[in-house]
Design brief:
The structure is a homodimer. Chain A has a domain of 96 residues. Helix content of chain A is 67%, strand content 1%. Chain A is built from 23 helices and 2 strands. Chain A has a two-stranded antiparallel ribbon with strand order 1-2. In chain A, a hairpin with a 2-residue loop joins β1 and β2. The interface between A and B is large, with 58 and 58 residues. The complex binds potassium ion (K) (2 copies). One potassium ion binds next to loops of chain A.
Chain lengths: 482, 482
């Protein structure tokens, strides 16, 4: 059997840290003077005590390293347990959520999904709004570290292709996971501060700028307003676009940039493909919007740039209700959410590098059909890709669509119509946020769903965020043997 | 460059044969005495003359064998050109279709899709109805031969796994493609006659039994009535279920059965997985129908058995409008259409063996994550699968979903709503027939679509029927080089 103590120790510590961060919304509530601060004091004490007790009770089993199954249990465990504590203030506070709703909201926060079950955000206690932002911000940094340190090691969904890289770049100087995490955190904090500053400069209040910078850099997409980013049309949208894009580029390139080498960032094929594709999509949507809705150019550019970037990066802010733009835009936005950003960032979904590998493989396949006896090798950035890695990527892709099908059918079983079920499953699995249709579309809210649907979506967010295999491997009997 | 003459010769011959079969609906129209027979006489003469001229003009380039690119051109060419001639009676006759509509109907026939643009089938000249059945019947046998002889040779979408088999089983006695085709044809004709006889025995008219046996065994799904198979509720549904299932089992097993060896049929893992899965799905739907609609058991069993079999085999008859059953059924039917039957039959869609290979690959992947240094090999029927074959299957799967996305977006661009666009693309690519929604659902009709949408669907039917790669390989520049 497993020795769960080292896992419990790390999770306990993280819970305690989560509890400590609750002091921030408490201070904000104190300053607002509505008496709401005690909610965060209570939650913080409960969370820190629980975390401390768990860590203490497991500390006698501390070891130097974790093996593969233990790493998997840790990764999944963190994302299952932390939302439970993150949900506390949402239950006790002004949002008055039931346990399931609060867990949904906290899961949606920590997985950076951004689907919300809270209505009436505009008048909500500031502590609650800040807490939602903090959940996403912490989730975001957690994901970058997971994507750079754990997933390549676990060979999940082809992430092993970045295995050598993270350690090559930083390995000699920073050989350990915690140190990689530290360097990434510095960059993450810097990006967040830069984003916040820009939001303040274009006229956002300091509080809004803070929370929205948290949810921009984490590509989380929670907003302080029911109408989401629709509250900040104009220059703020361009700022958001810039930082959403920066948030989904590979963070390892920023480490290199900080060390004085900007070329790898510019030469990274993921970055080029991502930016190029976004540019093409924006051009198409601008053209279509100007033709079909006779929007003036600036509005068409801004709305398509903002909403496309928001969906493709998996942020999920909405500034316009694109459900009303027409069928082409609806279908396009549905499929664009399945693209995602670059690996090793806060992005979720299928991700650019997987498409690059898949298309490289498809090209080879077509060559082989044409010339059965030729020798062709799929390549990534010029280097041949090991068949095993390619296989991982394909298995990920297959599993993604099979899971999407199963989640959709499960959701439809709770009575949701086809579009809501399908787009709900997709938006949860890609951690994007908004779905399609009146109920959960960009101008909708997840509060109206029934409990079974919320439960299924919680699972889908978790599975998507952990790149599927990390969760599914635990469903095999072999995992629990020896 | 290619020498197109051997390809033209074969296509010319097939056109002439198609023209000759037009004599049958001519005779039926003569017997009906409505004067409609001249339509088929004209069409037959034009078609046979055109085919004969093409074959003659190419006969000087006749060679013994075709190379790979020529085989690909031939396969695609047949399915592009034959519907043009198949469309003739539909344009000239009582159905009075425009060229695009007639081409759509003929393509839907020959690819065994079964989506129709004709309304008022109930009073239509019998020749037209028979001709639609003949188009599907010919398409069906064409597909079995293509799937057994050409696709394994072309290594398309993992079909190479059946390469050795077809030739091992029949190779020693029947080494040549035409002889395989002959033996398969005997079985195909026998199944059709058996189906027709059963339909007559349970009370269908001889004419209806003939046409519906044609469209059952080809899993085509054209019917003589606007309400499709809803006209024949009761025992006829069970007969249809039996023959739809027989039509999607691997035909090579029937060859073995005829030669006195029935065990391979019973032991084929594709057959077992297919029948097992169908049984589970039927049980689930019966349970759900009885609970939610309080159907009596026999009705629930019959309706779920018939409609599920119809969709999973890609036949596409409808006996009940399952759009009204509720969201669970709608979502389920959408995804079930993506399963398909067994390879080497008249079925289309993704097919059972691909899922078997994919899940085998997923299992290995999960084992590798758990135990990185273990040695695991994906297997099919106990035998290790070459990585290249596995790769082909995965590329097929990826390409299928990417194509589905592109076709959906293209359809939505013509103004179709999301569900119609997505389900339209899916039903065309899987050659099933009905989509979802009011317009193209089981009680709908494709006549109401605009021309661009019809054009896109024609392409999607073709691409799906030719297992994608056969078409896409022609889009690469390398294909056309030397
Ligand atoms: K998001
Ligand atoms: K069909």
């Amino acid at each position: 059997m497993f020795d769960l103590r080292p896992i419990g120790y790390v999770i306990g510590l993280l819970i305690a840290i989560l509890g400590a961060t609750m002091i921030l919304p408490m201070l904000v509530d104190l300053a607002e003077g509505r008496g709401h601060w005690s909610v965060f004091l209570e939650s913080s004490v409960i969370t820190m005590l629980s975390g401390g007790l768990i860590a203490l009770s497991c500390s006698n089993g501390l070891r130097a390293g974790l093996n593969i199954p233990e790493t998997i249990l840790l990764t999944s465990g963190v994302w299952v347990v932390l939302p439970l504590f993150g949900a506390l203030p949402l239950m006790l506070g002004e949002s008055e959520l039931r346990l399931l709703d609060a867990y949904f909201e906290a899961m949606s926060g920590l997985t950076t999904t951004g689907s919300t079950v809270i209505t009436g955000l505009d008048g909500m206690a500031r502590g609650i709004l800040l807490w939602r932002g903090i959940l996403q911000w912490l989730g975001g940094i957690g994901i970058v570290v997971m994507a750079m340190v754990f997933l390549p090691e676990l060979r999940v969904g082809g992430m092993q292709i970045f295995r050598a890289e993270a350690f090559d770049t930083m390995g000699k100087i920073l050989p350990r996971a915690t140190e990689i995490a530290a360097q990434i955190s510095v960059i993450y904090i810097f990006l967040t501060l830069a984003c916040m500053l820009c939001y303040v400069l274009i006229g956002m209040s300091f509080f809004d700028a803070t929370v929205h910078s948290f949810t921009t850099i984490s590509t989380g997409g929670f907003s302080n307003y029911d109408m989401s980013f629709g509250r900040f049309t104009g220059p703020a949208e361009y700022v958001a676009v810039l930082f959403m894009i920066l948030a989904v580029l590979p963070f390892v390139r920023y480490v290199q940039l900080v060390n004085g080498n900007g070329r790898p960032l510019l030469r990274d094929s993921q970055v080029r493909v991502f930016v190029g594709m976004l540019a093409v999509l924006v051009a198409v949507v601008v053209f279509a919007l100007m033709r079909s809705h006779s929007h003036p150019f600036e509005q068409a550019l801004r709305e398509s740039l903002f909403n496309l970037t928001s969906i493709i990066t998996g942020t999920g802010y909405a500034s316009a209700d694109y459900m009303r733009w027409g069928p082409f835009f609806i279908a396009l936005f549905f499929f664009v959410a399945l693209i995602g950003g670059c690996a090793g960032s806060t992005t979720c979904s299928i991700k650019i590098f997987r498409y690059q590998l898949l298309f490289s493989s498809i090209r080879v396949q077509l060559q082989r059909i044409r010339t059965p006896h030729g020798l062709f090798t799929p390549r990534y950035e010029g280097k041949p890709v090991p068949p095993e890695t390619l296989n991982s990527v394909m298995v990920f892709f297959v599993f993604f669509f099979v899971s999407l099908g199963l989640f959709s059918v499960a959701l439809s079983l709770t009575g949701l119509d086809f579009v809501t079920a399908l787009s709900g499953a997709a938006t949860a699995m890609t951690n994007t946020g908004p779905g399609l249709g009146q109920l959960i579309g960009p101008s909708g809210n997840f509060a109206g769903l029934n409990d079974s649907a919320k439960g299924i979506l919680i699972l889908a967010m978790l599975v998507g965020r952990l790149e599927l295999m990390t969760v599914y491997v635990m469903l095999t009997p072999a995992f629990w043997r020896a």
